[in-house]
Amino acid sequence: MTHVFYRNSRSTPPTATRGEGAYIYDDTGKQYLDGSGGAAVSCLGHSDPDVIAAVQTQVATLDFAHTGFFTSGPAEALAERLVTHAPDGIDRVYFVSGGSEAVETALKMARQYFVETGEPQRTRFISRKQSYHGNTLGALAAGGNVWRKEKFAPLLADTAHISPCYAYRGQEAGESLEAYGQRVANELESELQRVSPETVIAFIAEPVVGATLGAVPAVPGYFKRIREICDRYGVLLILDEVMCGMGRTGTLFACEQDGVAPDIITIAKGLGAGYQPIGATLCTNQIHEVFVQGSGFFQHGHTYIGHPVACAAGNAVVTKLTDGGMVARAAQMGEKLDQALRDAFGDHPHIGDIRGRGMFRGLEIVEDRASKSPFDPARGINKRVKAAAFEAGLICYPMGGTVDGQRGDHVLLAPPFILTDDQIGELIEKLGTALQSAL
Ligand code: PLP
Q1: Is pLDDT of 341 > 90?
Q2: Is the CB of 268 under 6 A from ligand 1?
Q3: Is 262 in the pocket of ligand 1 (CB under 6 A)?
Q4: Distance from residue 145's CA to the centre of ligand 1 (Å)
């Protein structure tokens, strides 16, 4: 008899008892290769001694001090470390406990910014279809995943959604990647004009779309054009790197590869690497100064913001990612993973696309490669792949997205950066077994 309210109300998952390196073990001793870091969380694997030591030392020194009264050494150090490596102009860090909170914070920060600057008529956000920004009501409203939103639609703020930059589905015959990117980016300008640009607070997007599409990066030039449009209309650019940030794509911040600097960035998942729940909303000095010169107070806050133990974990993680070379390793092993996926599944009759960056890779599952038509959603392909992989001892992250009104299935892979060559082989073998039994 359990009293836990599980995600799936009709079944009880196995009990995880131990994590070591790239593996999780359950109470029967079964070993699972963590091919998705849970949900792109465990970037350093499961038993990193340096992060464990940092957490242990901090909790024994100062467990908690409320940010209504104090700052702390770990929070100051982590903010400095993040800003040192952040894109141009990013200068301030607001700590929270996870991804949805980071996005809520970004949305409220952007709104209050315009209240402070005397533009309170800016009341809406624009985002993209097939995006995911979190499950709290503000973040859910911003997202474009129809399935996650539909039950809560009456509670959600009206948000406009433009097309994602999803070349596999959207690029037209004879159109170059660059031309495709400009075309879909220009949808932002059309949408701004449709809703009146002076009513819009910000555009929010994931640099590499994670949960909803399965590791889809934008094409070259797309985000530069988005940045230009935001600047032209005085709209803030929020990049949601909750899943794709913190080295996952081979650079500490994913947007470095797109050559753009946003006004606000959200991070979480890999920041605590699973050792502590922590997220952060980073903003420019210009935004922060508006608060300083204006009301002097951000009307926001949660009890656990800037938690010293979570920040101590974040410090140890970011130090390993940067000084410890783990971001470089993600880039290097990511290329090997990509090649291994292409070698194994490049000709697979039901794999339509293999994509991603660094240790963030996605496979799109289709019924027919030529027409790119997805499987009938009633077949629940994503659930079958997840179950078959789990049975084979592989944790991966299959999702059924919505492709222009139709369901489409993909598998997201986001393994720890410590993965070895042999473990890449193991992942490919187990995924192959799962696909064979599920499709
Ligand atoms: N934003 C993005 C891009 C995400 O992928 C997620 C989670 O998958 C979130 C926000 C929400 O993060 P959390 O689940 O930590 O609340």
Answers
A1: yes
A2: yes
A3: no
A4: 12
Q: Which fold has domain 16-48+325-438?
A: Aspartate Aminotransferase, domain 1 (3.90.1150)
Torsion of CA 100, 105, 111, 116, to 10 degrees: 180
- Is the CB–ligand 1 distance for residue 195 below 6 Å? no
Percentage of the chain modeled with pLDDT above 70: 98
**What are the domain boundaries of the chain?**
16-48+325-438, 52-321
- Is residue 133 within 6 Å of ligand 1 at its C-beta? yes
Give 226-263 pLDDT, tens digit per residue: 999 999 999 999 999 999 999 999 999 999 999 999 99
User: What's the rounded Cα separation, in Å, for the pair 169 and 167?
Assistant: 5
| Residue in 125, 149, 113, 84 with CA at minimum distance from that of residue 323 | 84
Q: What is the pLDDT of residues 194-233, one digit of tens each?
A: 999 999 999 999 999 999 999 999 999 999 999 999 999 9
Pick left, alpha or beta for residue 337 (phi over 0 → left; psi -120 to 50 → alpha; otherwise beta).
Answer: alpha
CATH topology of domain 52-321: Aspartate Aminotransferase; domain 2 (3.40.640)
Q: Which two tokens stand for residue 16?
A: 């995880």
Three-class SS state of 276: strand
- Pairing status of strand 264-267 against strand 360-365: unpaired
Residue having the nearest C-alpha atom to atom 5 of ligand 1: 243
Q: Encode pLDDT of 397-406 as tens digits.
A: 988 755 666 5
199-225 burial string, b = 16+ CB within 10 Å, else e? Answer: ebbbbbbbbbbbbbbbbbbbbebbbeb
Question: Among 353, 340, 313, 323, which Cα is nearest to 247's?
Answer: 323
- Per residue, the 3-state secondary structure of 169-194, as one string, reads HHCCCCCCHHHHHHHHHHHHHHHHHH
pTM over 0.95, yes/no: yes
CB count in 10 Å sphere of residue 83: 14
Name residue, tokens 């701004």: 192
Residues 246, 82: Cα–Cα separation, whole Å: 10
Q: What are phi and psi of 222, to 5 degrees?
A: -60, -55
Distance, in Å, from the CA atom of 69 to the CA atom of 192, rounded to the nearest integer, reads 41
Q: Report whether 20 contacts 47 (CB < 8 A).
A: yes
